[in-house]
Specification:
19 helices, lyase, L-fuconate_dehydratase, 45% helix, 448 residues, magnesium ion binding, alpha/beta, magnesium, 2 domains, L-fuconate dehydratase activity
Length: 448
């Protein structure tokens, strides 16, 4: 079949869940027992050169089936689409999905419905990069600025960022790109690690993992805080003793506090020289973040992983509410909306330090950060990508971190494809792991 007639032939979804709560991996003050999960989608085509595109939305267990159902609701708008047309203009599908008036009512452009759009749109970008035989970061960095502007979503943004503004940013961003690419390929992109800091870990495990992080070349670690102040003081003291005074120590409250409480708590932890306080209050409270930022300086305020769309990001920047923007690859409407978010951050001069962890978020966000370095911001100063060291083995193209830096991916695509054996084992509830787990729990209940 010729490429010009290739079509999307199926949209397959999977409810993938990993039992991370059993070791308290990912535990924090707001989410004490997460089972990291992916509402996973595969676009299958009859194209000979690249027959599949992979994407997902990240959740933490119960409700992943709801997210899968939201992705399935988009199937009718994707089946039968021309592969050539999709890959030449992913924004065409993005506009159709975000513009569906009946489905849009469920958002608009927020929550489960919008995350479903992001999963499908990211799968299209994975397909496009595979067909171009490039990793996504390279596909974006090689693209003409005019085409990138066509792909970004500027609706509701033009009071602060017009397509003309974006074009100027992208044209300036091309200067020195070849030298930066050489540095990226040689050195990689700076990372920080959250792996030592999960709230459920005891002090011995925190100390061991923090020291290992420093030995592995990380210059920043992050601790979860917010459940108990005395406990946080002890854990911060333990972490600072383990890493010394020269390693950055970031703190993450995962939306735990009201505004006055966030100010009091952060002030109490300031003695340990925290670099930033992350998600100190509701992710929707623009003015609350601005008040916290004024009160806790010089501690920086970071947020963005739960910013449900580019409009919330715009207002965080307009209000001077954050020092660090933590975009998420799977929370908003995929690459198209994240292009707009990266350009917004550049317009306001705010560094982007993407949220990662979870299932596959490290795999995705590395591409966006590397594109930002090569073609938008042109710098890695005060920029780091989050890294956690679990679940990468389930991906066909897992992240590689060396000496505290992400290695630039070389395989074509968005690094989103799960291993078939992991899909077979961890699909819920019928995968081999979950079926055996249910049988064991049933046996124990019957024995009691």
């Amino acid at each position: 079949m010729s490429p010009t007639t290739a079509r999307v032939t199926s949209v397959d979804t999977y409810d993938i869940r990993f039992p991370t709560s059993r070791e308290l991996d990912g535990s924090d003050a707001m989410n004490p027992d997460p089972d990291y999960s992916a509402a996973y989608v595969v676009l299958r085509t009859d194209a000979a050169d690249a027959p599949e595109g992979h994407g997902f939305a990240f959740t933490i267990g119960r409700g992943n089936d709801v997210q899968v159902a939201a992705i399935e609701a988009l199937r009718g708008q994707v089946l039968g689409r021309s592969v050539d047309a999709l890959c030449a203009d992913p924004a065409s599908l993005y506009r159709d999905l975000t513009g569906d008036s009946q489905l849009r009512w469920l958002g608009p452009e927020k929550g489960v419905a919008h995350m479903a759009v992001g999963a499908v749109v990211n799968a299209v970008w994975d397909l496009a990069a595979r067909r171009a035989r490039k990793p996504l970061w390279r596909l974006l960095a090689d693209a003409e600025p005019e085409w990138l502007v066509e792909q970004a979503d500027f609706r509701y943004l033009t009071d602060v960022l017009t397509p003309g503004d974006a074009l100027d940013l992208l044209r300036r961003g091309r200067k020195g790109a070849d030298e930066r690419r050489a540095r990226l390929l040689e050195r990689g992109y700076p990372a920080y690690t959250t792996s030592p800091g999960w709230l459920g870990y005891d002090d011995a495990k925190l100390t061991r993992l923090a020291r290992r992080a420093v030995a592995d070349g990380f210059t920043q670690i992050k601790l979860k805080v917010g459940a108990d102040l005395d406990d946080d003081i002890r854990r911060c003291r333990t972490a600072r003793a383990a890493v010394g005074p020269d390693i950055r120590l970031a703190l993450d409250a995962n939306q735990r506090w009201d505004v006055p409480e966030a100010i009091r708590w952060t002030t109490a932890l300031a003695a340990f020289d925290p670099y930033w306080i992350e998600e100190p209050t509701s992710p929707d409270d623009i003015l609350g973040h601005a008040a916290i930022r004024r009160a806790v300086a010089p501690v920086k305020v970071a947020t963005g992983e739960h910013a449900q769309n580019r409009v919330v990001v715009k207002q965080l920047l307009q209000a001077g509410a954050i020092d660090v923007l933590q975009l998420d690859a799977a929370r908003v409407g995929g690459v198209n909306e994240n292009l707009a978010i990266l350009l917004l951050a550049a317009r306001f001069g705010v560094p982007v330090c993407p949220h990662a962890g979870g299932v596959g978020l490290c795999e995705l966000v590395q591409h966006l950060a590397m594109f930002d370095y090569l073609a938008v911001s042109g710098t890695t100063d005060d920029r780091v990508i989050e890294y956690v060291d679990h679940l990468h083995e389930h991906f066909l193209d897992p992240v590689v971190v060396r000496d505290g830096h992400y290695t630039a991916p070389a395989a074509p695509g968005f690094s989103a494809a799960l291993r078939p054996e992991s899909i077979a084992r961890y699909t819920y509830p019928g995968g081999t792991f979950w079926a055996a787990d249910l049988a064991e729990r049933t046996r124990k209940e019957q024995a009691v």
